[in-house]
């Protein structure tokens, strides 16, 4: 008996490497057949944050930029503070409490905490974050999608909601860029579109 095929997905297919393995009779120690040798599949993994502008096409993304108060803090620490308050806030009344909790975790001072509260308050008041009653809401939603070149891309959506007819994907940014790379949001939209078959609206919300 010699077989160079492997039974995969209910059919026989040739082994990609073309290699074989011996089948040995345990009573004699002699080889009496050879079978196909499978191999572990190889994947090229990438993260949504590292994609170039040309990685995804055909997915529209709107950038909404809110005003920045004079003297407002910036940098990665402030961005993480704002992001965490946004991710855990349900109503405006709890913003100060959340700023205290996350401000301590990030080592933010009182000025940074107060500024973060105002940034989040303005973001929550914007129509982009006005969600219809009954809509499904997801924060920090993990997604994965395969690109046309075979690469697997994973990421985590800041905020997504669906009314059952379409999706809206929102990515928060606290910095300002003249030419922002929106491939990250395009990947998120593409993943939801393929998974659900529903149209997706992508938004970069510069808070």
Give the structure's gist in a few sentences:
This protein has 207 residues and is an alpha/beta fold.
Shape: elongated
Q: Main beta sheet: strand number and arrangement?
A: 6 strands, mixed
Instruction: List low-confidence stretches.
Output: none
> How many H/I helices?
4
What CATH calls the topology of the largest domain is: Lambda Exonuclease, Chain A
CATH architecture of the largest domain, by name, is Alpha-Beta Complex
Tags for this model:
207 residues; alpha/beta; Lambda Exonuclease, Chain A; 3 domains; six-stranded mixed sheet; three-stranded mixed sheet; 4 helices
Explain what this protein looks like in three dimensions.
The chain is α/β, with parallel strands linked by helices and 207 residues long. The chain has three domains: 2-36, no CATH class; 43-66 and 133-207, Lambda Exonuclease, Chain A; 70-125. It is built from four helices and eleven strands. The protein has helices spanning 75-88, 95-106, 110-125, 183-196, and strands spanning 2-3, 5-8, 11-14, 20-24, 31-36, 45-47, 61-65, 136-146, 152-162, 167-173, 200-206. Strands 6, 7, 8, 9, 10 and 11 form a six-stranded mixed sheet that branches. Strands 1-5-4 form a three-stranded mixed sheet, with no helix packed on it. Strand 9 (152-162) and strand 10 (167-173) form a beta hairpin. Helix 1 crosses helix 3. The protein is elongated. The protein starts with a strand and ends with a strand. 29% of the residues are buried.
């Amino acid at each position: 008996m010699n077989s160079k095929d492997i039974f995969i997905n209910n059919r026989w297919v040739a082994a990609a490497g073309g290699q074989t393995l011996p089948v040995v009779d345990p009573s004699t120690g002699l080889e009496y057949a050879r079978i196909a040798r499978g191999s572990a599949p190889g994947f090229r993994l990438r993260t949504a944050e590292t994609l170039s502008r040309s990685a995804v096409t055909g997915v529209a993304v709107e950038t909404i930029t809110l005003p920045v108060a004079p003297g407002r803090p910036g940098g990665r620490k402030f961005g993480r503070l704002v992001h965490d308050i946004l991710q855990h806030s349900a109503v405006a009344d709890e913003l100060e409490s959340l700023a205290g909790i996350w401000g301590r975790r990030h080592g933010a001072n009182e000025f940074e905490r107060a500024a973060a509260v105002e940034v989040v308050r303005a973001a929550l008041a914007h129509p982009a974050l006005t969600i219809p009653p009954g809509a499904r809401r997801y924060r920090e939603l993990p997604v994965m999608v395969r690109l046309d070149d075979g690469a697997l891309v994973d990421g985590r959506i800041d905020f997504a909601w669906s009314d059952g007819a379409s999706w809206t994907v929102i990515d928060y940014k606290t910095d300002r860029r003249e030419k922002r790379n929106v491939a990250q949001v395009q990947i998120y939209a593409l993943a939801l579109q393929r998974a659900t078959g529903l149209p997706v609206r992508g938004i970069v919300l510069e808070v």
